[in-house]
Fold this sequence. Notes:
By secondary structure, this protein is of the alpha+beta class. Helices cover 38% and strands 22% of the residues. It is built from six helices and eight strands; from the N terminus they run ββααβββαβαααββ. α5 crosses α6. The radius of gyration is 23 Å and the shape is extended. Mean pLDDT is 85; it is low at 132-139.
Amino acid sequence: MSAYYDLFEKPDIGRTGEQQPLYARFVPKGTIDKKEFIDRVHLFTGISRSVLEGTMAAFMDELRDCLANGWTVELGELGYFTPSLSCQRRAMEKDKVRAASVALRGLNFRLGKRFYEELGGKMKLERKPRPVVSASSDTFLSMERRLQLLDEYLQRNPCINRAQYARLMGRSYKQAINDLNLFIENGVLFRYGMGRNVVYAGKK
């Protein structure tokens, strides 16, 4: 799968009236929430979901505490987190600013060099497809194309689960469930198992 971008004209800040050059902007396919992210890591590592959830919570707690106590935090190859601050009142002289007037504005994140290089090497970009007026106009892959990819996958594998389908189609977890339920209604797929162990298979 590819990541999408689109092209936009830069604002005419100088008000020259001349056509401005284009710039590329990342176009997200949606948002992968915490639950789906843990599902994906669990699927491809085999680490227990409860262990992953506990580890993520511990990471967040420790990251918050370290930042609150004045540290820059490095998370391996991912990069560095540092708090950013702002003055709540306008002042021209340092001795006019008190601690009560300084507050947290947000977090600065500096991407690690190796992570950046690996991400850039792995990312395949293509321009976002133009919208297609159809029952699936909210998606980048038409229903026909999704059915084709699903059929090709099931020819090589006995079944597919929700996380695998989402990854294959570039869909969110909720979109994947909607697709799979629709395929079941239309007799394309059959569901087996219960809860987190549900898988989907084609007609025998």
